[in-house]
Design goal:
The structure holds 2 protein chains of 2 kinds.
Chain A: H1 2-5, H2 17-23, H3 30-65, E1 78-79, E2 86-87, H4 90-121, H5 124-139, H6 142-156, H7 158-168, H8 184-208, H9 212-220, H10 225-254, H11 257-262, H12 281-288, H13 294-329
Antiparallel strand pairs in A: 1-2
Helix pairs in contact in A: 3-13, 4-8, 4-10, 5-8, 8-10, 9-10, 10-13, 12-13
Chain B: H1 5-29, E1 56-62, H2 67-80, E2 84-89, H3 93-101, E3 107-110, H4 116-125, E4 131-146, E5 154-156, H5 157-164, H6 174-179, E6 191-195, H7 200-212, E7 231-233, H8 235-245, E8 249-254, H9 255-261, E9 264-265, E10 267-269, H10 280-288, E11 291-292, E12 301-302, E13 316-324, H11 333-344, H12 346-350, H13 362-373
Classes of the chains: A mainly alpha, B alpha/beta.
Amino acid sequence: MEISSATADSPPPPAGGPATAARTKSATRPGDRIFLAFSRGSGILLLVIMAAIAVFLTVRATSALSKNEGNFFTTFEWTANGTPPVFGIAVLAFGTVVSSVIAMLIAVPVAIGIALFISHYAPRRLATPLSYVIDLLAAVPSIVYGLWGALFLVPHLGGLYSWLDDYLGWTGIFAYHDGAARSLFTIGILLAIMILPIVTSVSREVFLQTPKMNEEAALALGATRWEVIRMAVLPFGRSGVISASMLGLGRALGETMAVATVLSPSFEIGKSLLDPGGGTFAQNIASSFKESGEIGKDALIASGLVLFVLTLLVNGAARLIIARRKEYTA
Amino acid sequence: MKLQRKNRLRAVAFGAIAVSGALVLTACGSDDNSGGGSTGGGSTKAAGNIKCEGKGQLLASGSSAQKNAMDLWVKNFMAACKDIQINYKPTGSGAGIQEFLQGKTAFAGSDSALKPEEVTKSKEVVKGGQGINLPLVGGPIAVGYKVPGVKDLVLDADTLAKIFDNKIDKWNDPAIAKLNKDAKLPDLKIQAFHRSDESGTTDNFTKYLKAAADKSWPYEPAKAWKPKGGQSADGSAGVSSQVKQTDGAISYFELSYATANKIDTVKLNTGASAPVEATSDNASKAIAEAKITGTGKDLALKLNYATKAEGAYPITLVTYEVVGDKGNKAETLPATKSFLTYIASEDGQSVLKDLGYAPLPAEIATKVREAVASLA
């Protein structure tokens, strides 16, 4: 994820250029064939690696699942090292999905705003440093976010939570019962900051690709800048923004250290999002692995398999959405 | 969605530099297990009585609860015996026993004695013998708290059980007030922290609650925390730092973490004439009350958590070194024996106190020394 977010570091190179020129020449020269074989080989290697991971996870997972005394999908407990082993992923799946969704709800609108500001409002002198700063956020290691979250964010969220409790406490999910803010909602806020750079930089990249003619045509018709954005930029960039969000979601689903440092993990689902407790797949693997026995490790691998499948589904869904939108915008 | 190729390439290059940079940095940063400064200020005794036999590398792994003791012992021992390299990895008790049973290590550190099936398995590794437990490090598990204006808090097992089971959730609860007649208890919510990872500390703490407050603690003792509710954090370092920064917090961890973070600890009303404080000496007194349940050379201990002996602090953790009584590998046996002889010796035990651990009481220490001397 970090790799692709660095994409935005460089200014867009001139359209066309030498790459397209070279491609039009004869396709049978040795260099082309070597390159074809190389890239095909890399592609196949990738599939083999993915398959190997899936096989490894499945094999190890089945051995633990066959010994599990609880229901793997509904049990609210994780005592995989006990006799008998009892473990279930209900809490982990809930925590992973909920914290990621909160992160998306916060991050995506903000990221689109920043991307639009950089691509269409800010003067060039401000836009470049600003995009660098945003990209720098991606370079901060997650453990640093974790420490910042635990030492700064958590002690300072009490005020916000009390405010949420005052106005939205009646909903139940925003009820706040004092105590440290080491909850799924805090994780959501932290994850939102962490996925901001990837969503922003890909969105900005896409917004910059809007055909100038469309924008100019809209301006010629007397549209304001906001109307240009609404009618030309946003529809054009929609599929890009969706794929950017999915990249961000992928990162949020798998985030480990920051969550493990900030959350107060427990195997229960609180009624309120602001109550400490819950857990995510990756956090649980990181914090349970070192004291795990053989079955315990396999059980964690089984939970890892679920995360693997979940991430595949998210990415697959993103592909589907983009494929559909592409026809619409083309 | 047409991202420029050049951009991609440049991004990959950026990424590659970032990743390799990170790897180089982490390679430098971690794994400083060669002794170093992490021994918590324990004194290095002159190594006059250390006998060096054997040479080469000695691998061991296991309990992280005895990490600080091991670090100091290894440092002292290696200062005296230049030919022996000892490498103890604090991977956790479970992993330590597994590695021992796979024959990868000379001995394992463990917070709990070997289970019967593990003893059976150990017979395949140590030919002609079996794995035995040698208690070598004891230590009080302190109950640390942070309540503004309250010093010298006294609690008993029953109240502790109710606090950690979230049945008592205010500091001015009558049950607490009854035990602390002179204290000004605030109207503050109790934030009870437990370990989120599986831990021998949790195991011992819940064993104590079960033994001393059966009615108020309906859960079976285990390494994983059973009750719902409360807050949690990872490792002793995690829970102790939460207690340090949260008003109204209470949690359990090894005494050294309380000393290091200047956290007030609870005095226990055990039924003895005066409330007992968590100190190394008081823990040693509780270990002296323990029964040896192992047979032969095996010295597995059963602590009497419900003890009412004067000055005995019952929430005490004993961690073992697990070795084979016979059939240890010929190449590591001499080094193992001389190291274990050192740590079981008076010199070895007396350095423990500075680290917040409890030296073994004389009677048990003698038995451990006999067992170590007879290892083959």
